[in-house]
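Design job #97: recover the sequence.
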């Protein structure tokens, strides 16, 4: 519930006023709308005193909840009207005001005009059954306030004793006011002078869409001309609103497409950055692995050097070990046999490994088609492989410790060996040198392959970046050109419409002057009535041709509108309105002479040229849209090429992982650890 009743009672207590029961009953029934949080205060048909008007006015001055105020048939005096108007001058909530049947005139009318001059919220004002036009000076001040108001949309001035001078004042106010949409002037006394003034204003003010002047002693031809002009205003406003709506939709769609393309490009940049970061990390990991392998090789070389130094020390102890040589010779033969078996087994394993590697490569080549779907699984497997790699590194460290232990045992055995063991060691050294040479060649080959892959990846990434930059430049150039063309087209359309309005207004004024001259010379034209009948028949034939041309133009307009958004209902309504206007024009054409029809035909031809120009502009816009669509298709093709490059990069990356796994397996194989043998 609103706080308006409490505020009303508080004001009455502060100013020692007696609140009226009828007002309290209405205020107690006041409820806020749950949707808009606004209320409607209806005090119509209640006799409200001056003091009550003052109290209500003081509450309205600061109220923000009352949206509609109804004071119809309350018989308010001038002081009450002044207080209410003074409060509404600063009120920003009331949008609808009903002052019907309050005998407003003189000072009260001036107060209402002053309120309209200051208020920028009121949209509907009902002043039916008052006496605003009784005093011309007061009504002139009211019209001055109406002229500068910029919020009023609906104005009801029925039964206000407005004379022809008052009609001229209303016309002058409406000519300056561009916000009033509906004006009701029925049952006044405007006369022919007021009617002509309103007709001139309706031709000038294109925002007025409803003007009723029945019961004002205005000739029927002026009334019909006013109705025609109002209908024309309605159609032009509808066309303008439709055009504005379509331009807004097109701009929103263009902005949405720009945002989508920007999002796609940002996503593509993010993916490329992620791939580059992944390549850097993989290159770092490969470099780390290679360094670890080099460190392992250096450790083994140092161990081998220590073995050779220890061997020189064991030569001095060979004299003491001659007795044990016979026993160790048999053990040496057994060790040689085991070594031969291990070498043969290692060769067999190496063949199997190569065969398995070939089969695995074939299998991987077959599974490349499904690699994109298994990307997530491969990522998880990569994590597990990293854990396994750590575990295998720990195993390598354990194996190193075992190797050192075995080396110590071998030292003890070598201390008991004879001269024959030296020859066998020389053979073993040759085998080790060959194995190290093979391993170094393979390691160098793997490094070269990895470097080539990295260089290829970098070149492809640079090419993709250059392609992306070129595409962005093309898109920005096309967008700027499209926007410039669209802006120029809109400016041309606006200029053409302005020219059409100016030319139409000038031609209508010329036709009106000629019509007045013809009306004044009606007595002279009566004698030549037979000649006019012949001219009328010719004019009717010309009117038929004009109707056919208008129908053709209407079909062109219908086709253009269907191509834009297919609004068939609005087009049918526009066709009906055009038919009604054509019927009215037929009646007017029967009263005009041949010169008017010629001017009308010229005007119609000019309109046809303007319509064709507008159609050509729309065709240019459609061509620009087609070019933009082609560029979008090119961008889609570029994106597909980038996806193919991504799949190739993934394949090369998987192959790189296989090579690294092969290097790790080779390092862990018996051929890479000859000290154990």
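Job complete. Output follows.
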């Amino acid at each position: 519930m609103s706080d308006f009743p409490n505020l009303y009672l508080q004001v009455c207590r502060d100013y020692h006023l007696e609140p009226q029961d009828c007002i309290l009953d209405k205020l107690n029934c006041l409820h806020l709308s749950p949707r808009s949080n606004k209320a409607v205060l209806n005090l119509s048909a209640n006799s409200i005193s001056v003091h009550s008007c003052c109290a209500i006015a003081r509450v309205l001055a600061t109220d923000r909840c009352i949206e509609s105020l109804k004071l119809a048939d309350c018989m308010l005096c001038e002081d009450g009207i002044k207080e209410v108007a003074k409060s509404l001058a600063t009120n920003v909530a009331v949008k609808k005001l009903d002052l019907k049947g309050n005998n407003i005139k003189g000072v009260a009318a001036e107060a209402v005009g002053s309120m309209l001059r200051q208020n920028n919220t009121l949209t509907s004002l009902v002043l039916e059954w008052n006496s605003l036009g009784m005093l011309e000076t007061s009504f002139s001040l009211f019209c001055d306030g109406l002229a500068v108001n910029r919020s009023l949309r609906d104005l009801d001035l029925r039964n206000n004793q407005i004379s022809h001078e008052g009609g001229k004042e209303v016309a002058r106010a409406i000519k300056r006011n561009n916000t009033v949409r509906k004006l009701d002037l029925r049952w006044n006394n405007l006369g022919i002078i007021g009617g002509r003034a309103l007709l001139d204003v309706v031709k000038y003010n294109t925002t007025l869409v409803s003007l009723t002047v029945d019961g004002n002693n205005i000739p029927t031809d002026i009334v019909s001309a006013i109705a025609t002009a109002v209908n024309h205003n309605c159609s032009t406003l509808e066309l303008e609103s439709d055009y504005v709506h379509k331009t807004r939709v097109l701009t929103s769609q263009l902005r949405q497409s720009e945002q989508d393309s920007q999002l796609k490009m940002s996503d593509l940049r993010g993916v490329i950055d992620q791939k580059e970061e992944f390549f850097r990390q993989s290159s770092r990991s490969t470099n780390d692995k290679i360094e670890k392998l080099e460190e392992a090789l250096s450790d083994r070389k140092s161990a081998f050097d220590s073995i050779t130094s220890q061997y020189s020390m064991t030569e001095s102890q060979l004299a003491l070990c001659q007795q044990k040589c016979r026993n160790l010779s048999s053990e040496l033969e057994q060790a040689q046999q085991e070594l031969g078996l291990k070498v043969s087994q290692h060769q067999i394993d190496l063949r199997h490994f190569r065969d398995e590697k070939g089969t695995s490569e074939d299998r991987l080549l077959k599974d490349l088609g499904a690699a994109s779907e298994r990307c997530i699984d491969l990522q998880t497997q990569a994590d597990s492989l990293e854990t396994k790699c750590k575990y295998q590194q720990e195993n390598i460290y354990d194996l190193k410790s075992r190797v050192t232990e075995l080396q110590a045992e071998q030292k003890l055995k070598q201390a008991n060996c004879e001269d024959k063991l030296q020859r066998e060691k020389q053979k073993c050294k040759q085998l080790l040198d060959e194995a190290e040479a093979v391993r170094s060649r393979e390691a160098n080959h793997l490094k070269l392959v990895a470097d080539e892959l990295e260089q290829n990846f970098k070149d492809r990434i640079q090419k993709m970046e250059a392609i992306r930059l070129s595409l962005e430049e093309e898109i920005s150039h096309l967008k700027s050109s499209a926007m410039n063309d669209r802006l120029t087209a809109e400016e041309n359309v606006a200029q053409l419409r302005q020219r059409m309005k100016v030319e139409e207004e000038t031609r209508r004024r010329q036709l009106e002057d000629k019509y007045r001259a013809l009306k004044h010379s009606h007595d002279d034209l009566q004698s030549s009535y037979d000649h006019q009948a012949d001219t009328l028949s010719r004019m009717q034939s010309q009117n038929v041709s004009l109707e056919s041309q208008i129908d053709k133009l209407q079909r062109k307009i219908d086709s253009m509108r269907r191509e834009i958004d297919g609004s068939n209902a609005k087009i049918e309504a526009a066709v009906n309105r055009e038919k009604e206007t054509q019927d009215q024009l037929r009646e007017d054409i029967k009263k005009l002479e041949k010169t008017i029809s010629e001017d009308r035909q010229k005007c119609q031809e000019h309109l046809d040229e303007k319509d064709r120009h507008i159609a050509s502009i729309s065709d240019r816009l459609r061509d620009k849209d087609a070019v933009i669509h082609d560029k979008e298709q090119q961008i889609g093709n570029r994106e597909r090429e980038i996806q193919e490059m991504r799949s190739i990069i993934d394949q090369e990356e998987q192959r790189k992982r296989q090579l690294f796994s092969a290097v790790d397996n080779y390092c862990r194989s018996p051929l890479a650890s000859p000290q154990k043998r």
